[in-house]
Amino acid sequence: MLKEALKQCGLIAILRGVRPDEVEAIGKALYDAGFRIIEVPLNSPEPLQSIRLLRSALPANCMIGAGTVMTPAQVQQVKDAGGELIVMPHSDPELIRAATAAGLASAPGVATVTEAFAALAAGADILKMFPAEQLGPVVVKAWRAVVPASVMLVPVGGITPDSIAAFAKAGASAFGLGSALYKPGMSAEQVGANARAFVAALNAVNPG
């Protein structure tokens, strides 16, 4: 389901710091803008409750996940809350295998080709290139020469609407969006406007 969702819209919303009392309205604004994957980092206030609320509020074709997952126990907690995607800042084979065993997709964070291939060997579904600001499009292009074309490379960290074109041209498959999309305190309307700007930027690179 993860790759299908990313083919519908190659953007992942990262709602770090979101609160349960605001998450439904923000989630609906993102869905209406075209997003089909929403991630709630576990270092947000009551993240599992936010995941539950998103799962119940949004259609089945919108994938709900958790970010900053650090332990196998958290993988099970996310699954119990209705989450379908495990995102981590690092590449931990034990966590990747725990996600697979739980029937969840995994997106480990990788910053070197060695980490990338180790993550794939452990069963990673996509590769989160993190931090994208530090790696840049040049590294994406270099990785694309050796990482199989079927593997989705997803830069995360500092992505803006203006930077999408350069990363996409270098071979990025999709993008994870943090503070340029959502910061704590933003209204659902603000997030929706930011989301539409990102969708427009992506559509300009991949029309149709």
Automatic annotation (TrEMBL):
Keywords: Carbohydrate metabolism, Lyase. It holds the Pfam family Aldolase. It comes from the Bacteria. Pathway: Carbohydrate acid metabolism. The keyword Lyase applies. Signal peptide: none annotated. CDD domains: KDPG_aldolase. The keyword Secreted does not apply. PANTHER family: 2-DEHYDRO-3-DEOXY-6-PHOSPHOGALACTONATE ALDOLASE-RELATED (PTHR30246:SF1), 2-KETO-3-DEOXY-6-PHOSPHOGLUCONATE ALDOLASE (PTHR30246). Belongs to the KHG/KDPG aldolase family. Homotrimer. This is 2-dehydro-3-deoxy-6-phosphogalactonate aldolase. It comes from Herbaspirillum lusitanum.
